[in-house]
């Protein structure tokens, strides 16, 4: 795991994923992110896990899917799914 302290520490994949998650204003799956960014699923998953471990984005496991979303929308989205 790489430690992220500043926005400049994000690689090009992480940067694009964060922008897409912020713009979506909803929970979004790894597959949806992969299709939207045109990155492979494996690269998306690795980058998303790193962003989650560095507390840049949030993660929610529902049934057999993992949903990703921003801290900015956390309260509104979690009320919907709890």
Draw up the topology in text.
Elements: H1 12-24, E1 28-29, H2 30-37, H3 41-53, E2 57-62, E3 65-70, H4 74-81
Antiparallel strand pairs: 1-3, 2-3
Helix pairs in contact: 1-3, 2-3
Largest sheet: 3 strands, antiparallel
CATH architecture: Orthogonal Bundle
Going by CATH, what is the homologous superfamily?
Winged helix-like DNA-binding domain superfamily/Winged helix DNA-binding domain
Oligomer: single chain
Q: What is the fold-level CATH name, i.e. the topology?
A: Arc Repressor Mutant, subunit A
Our estimate of the beta-strand percent is 15-25%
The coarse silhouette is: globular
Order of helices and strands: HEHHEEH
Q: Under the CATH scheme, which class?
A: Mainly Alpha
Strand order of the largest sheet: 1-3-2
Tally of structural domains? 1
Fraction of residues in H or I helices = 40-55%
How far is the first residue's CA from the last residue's CA?
30 Å
Describe this structure in words.
There is one protein chain. This protein is of the alpha+beta class and 82 residues long. The protein has one domain: Arc Repressor Mutant, subunit A (Orthogonal Bundle), CATH 1.10.10.10. 51% of the residues lie in helices and 17% in strands. The chain contains 4 helices and 3 strands. It has a 3-stranded antiparallel β-sheet with strand order 1-3-2. A hairpin with a 2-residue loop joins strand 2 and strand 3. Helix 1 packs across helix 3 and helix 2 packs across helix 3. The N and C termini lie far apart (30 Å). 17% of the residues are buried. The model has no long low-confidence stretch (mean pLDDT 84).
């Amino acid at each position: 795991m790489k430690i992220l302290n500043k926005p400049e520490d994000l690689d090009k994949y992480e940067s694009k994923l964060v922008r897409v998650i912020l713009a979506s204003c909803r929970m979004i799956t790894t597959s949806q992110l992969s299709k939207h960014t045109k990155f492979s699923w494996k690269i998306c998953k690795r980058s998303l896990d790193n962003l989650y471990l560095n507390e840049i984005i949030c993660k929610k496991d529902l049934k057999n899917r993992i949903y990703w979303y921003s801290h900015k929308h956390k309260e509104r989205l979690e009320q919907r799914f709890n």
